[in-house]
Amino acid sequence: QVQFVESGGGLVQPGGSLRLSCAASGSIFGLYNMGWYRQVPGKQREGVAYISSAYYTTYEDSVKGRFTISRDNAKRTVYLQMNSLKPEDTAVYYCNKNPPTIDWGQGTQVTVSS
After folding, report:
1. What is the CA radius of gyration of the chain?
2. DSSP-derived secondary structure for 23-62
3. Pairwise CA distance, residues 20 & 22, whole Å
4. Residue 69 binned pLDDT confidence (cut-offs 50, 70, 90)
5. CB 32 within 8 A of CB 48
6. In this predicted model, what pLDDT tens digit does every residue of 53-68 receive, in sequence order?
7. Helices (H), ranges, 48-100
């Protein structure tokens, strides 16, 4: 069982930036394909960015060019740098494997509002 602890969310104005972090347990973290996901109330959780064990990255269309996913295997941590934030990016953000397991963390709230 892998545990994920997300942090770094907060309230930011449109156009601002945030950097999310996700610390994962598990000694073989480097072998995991990882992803960042987000969920707003009443909607399904959606994937926004993915990074493979070989560091290949893919992004959902609405965040391409604004979000950057990265990882530090030595720290067992995956990051999401979010720039040019928009109100529609408001959500609770989670990390998990890709494809995700049932072991979701508590997530971190991101609110983009003036």
Report:
1. 13
2. EE--TTGGG--EEEEEE-TTS--EEEEEE-TT--EEE-GG
3. 7
4. very high
5. no
6. 999 999 999 999 999 9
7. none
